[in-house]
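Quick one: structure tokens for this chain, please?
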Amino acid sequence: MATKMMFGEIEQIRSKWGWLLALGIVMVVLGTVALFIMPAATLGTVLVLGWLLIVSGIVEMVHAFRVRRWGGLFLHLIGGVLGLLIGLLVITHPLVGAMAWTLLFASFFLVVGAFRLITAIRMKFPNWGWAVFDGAITFGLGILLWVQWPVSAVWFLGLAVGVSLILRGWSYVMFSVAIHNLPTPIPIDVRRAA
């Protein structure tokens, strides 16, 4: 049953393989451009994140007033106001915002990397060496960001966005080529007649 549904969905996508290919190519090109202009890509990313904070803050404040009889009104209102204010600070001072986001990512990578390392070494599940490798790389990236901070704030987000766009674009390219190269299924009626 699941296989039948999967083939039906693939047949729906098969006719759109060219669009997926074009999307993948555009994403690879944009990712490559982001790698060449990492400081500008970093500032662009920070500005997008700032606007997302502003919009989410406004939406949360509107939501707070829509459910004003609920006991959590002030929590939503405070969250919305903080989101709006932090978004405005990030937009008016994007370099400082990039520095703050980079510190946040550095802390995240240090904690997650250390947790993966310790967990993999203590549990020693099958193929645990890959988890140790992942944890070590993640932890090392966190250390790199901390040691090079505030200079790392200029390049890190642009690098992350560029690499992400290239990898996602390449996966779309490969997916579209794979779908295009799949053999056309033989209709059930033709198989029964043979």
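Residues 24-180 form one domain.
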